[in-house]
Write a structure and sequence with these properties.
The structure is a homodimer of 177-residue chains.
Chain A: H1 3-18, E1 51-58, E2 64-70, H2 72-80, E3 90-100, H3 102-108, E4 113-127, E5 138-144, H4 152-155, H5 158-162
Antiparallel strand pairs in A: 1-2, 2-3, 3-4, 4-5
Chain lengths: 177, 177
C-alpha cells in the first residue's frame, strides 16, 4: 500500500469514528469482475435493547467512547467462542463524545472522571454471508446521530481496515466477561 | 466534614472502584437510634443480560472502565425520567481495567485505543424503599471479581458519597441515548 493510500485510509477511519464525514479523497477502486460491496442502509430495529459486549475509548481526534452491543445471535457466538459468526449476527457500536464529568469529579474531589457525552454515530456489522460476500460476509453500516447513513465512498474504507483481524472474522471487539 | 473523614472517604471510594479493599480506617459511626444500613449480599441474577445505560472511565489510581446496565424497571424509569426510581429497580456497574489495545493501535497506526481489560468488580444499587430505608431506599452491593462481597465497614462509605446527588435519587450515572 503506498503512502497516499495509507493516509487516505487513516483519515477515513478517523472520520468514520468521529462521525465527521469529510472524506473526498481517492478510495481503493473497483476492478473489473470484482463484486461491488453492499452496505447497510437501514438501522437494525431494536439495537438499543441488545446485550452488552464491551466498551472502548479512542483518544486524540476521535475522543470517543464506544459501547458495543450485540443481538442474541452475536452474543451467543461470542460466549461460545464461535467463529466465524453465524448469519444473522449483528454487532452495534454506539459512539459518544468522551467528556469530563464535573459532578463526578466534585464527588471524587479530583479531576479523573469521564462519561458519555453527546452521541455521534452508531455503526453496525451485519452478518449475511451471501448478501455481503464481497466484504467477508459482513455488511457495514454507519449512521450519524441524525440517523442518516454516510455515503458509499466513505463506507468502502470499513472492510479494508477490518480485514486486519481476519483471524477473528473481521471483528475487533472482544467480549468483556 | 473534617479532613480525616474526607481522606477516609476518598480512600474508600478509590478502594471501592478499584476492587482493592484495604480500608481499615474509621468510618462514620452508628449513633444511638439510627437504623443500621443493610447491604446487598447476593449478586442479582441475570445482570449480565440487562440493558445498557452508559459508560464511564476513571483515571488515576482507579484506571477503570465502567459499563452501567439496568434491569427493566431501572431502564424504564431512566427513559421516562422518573424520579425517584421505583422499588425493584436495579442498576449494575461492571468495572474493568482500562488497558491499551495493541491490536487496535496497530490498525489505527497510532497509540490511541483503550479497551476493557480484566474485570475488577461489579457494584449494584437495588431499590427497595422499605428494606433499605436507612440508606435512601437503595441497597448497595460490591462484589469483587471472585464473586465475594466486601465487608460492611467498606460498604458504609457508599451512601455518604451517593448522597451528593440526592436530587437524582442518589444515582450518578445518566442515561446515554
Amino acid at each position: 500500500m503506498d503512502i497516499i493510500k495509507r493516509i487516505t485510509l487513516l483519515l477515513a477511519v478517523i472520520a468514520m469514528l468521529t462521525g465527521v464525514v469529510a472524506l473526498t479523497g481517492p478510495t481503493s477502486g473497483q476492478t473489473a469482475g470484482e463484486a461491488a460491496p453492499i452496505f447497510v442502509t437501514e438501522i437494525p430495529a431494536g439495537y438499543r435493547e441488545w446485550r452488552f459486549i464491551s466498551v472502548a475509548h479512542e483518544e486524540g481526534n476521535l475522543n470517543s467512547f464506544a459501547s458495543v452491543l450485540g443481538n442474541d445471535i452475536a452474543v451467543r457466538a461470542y460466549r461460545e467462542g464461535k467463529l466465524p459468526f453465524p448469519d444473522g449476527a449483528i454487532i452495534a457500536a454506539l459512539h459518544y463524545r468522551f467528556v469530563p464529568s464535573a459532578e463526578n469529579n466534585k464527588a471524587f474531589g479530583r479531576d479523573q472522571s469521564f462519561v458519555a457525552g453527546a452521541p455521534t454515530n452508531v455503526q453496525f456489522m451485519v452478518k449475511d454471508s451471501k448478501k455481503y460476500a464481497a466484504t467477508g460476509g459482513w455488511g457495514f453500516g454507519h449512521f450519524n446521530s441524525d440517523g442518516k447513513p454516510v455515503d458509499d465512498s466513505f463506507m468502502k474504507t470499513c472492510f479494508p481496515c477490518h480485514q486486519k483481524v481476519k483471524e477473528r472474522d473481521l471483528v475487533f471487539t472482544r467480549y468483556a466477561p
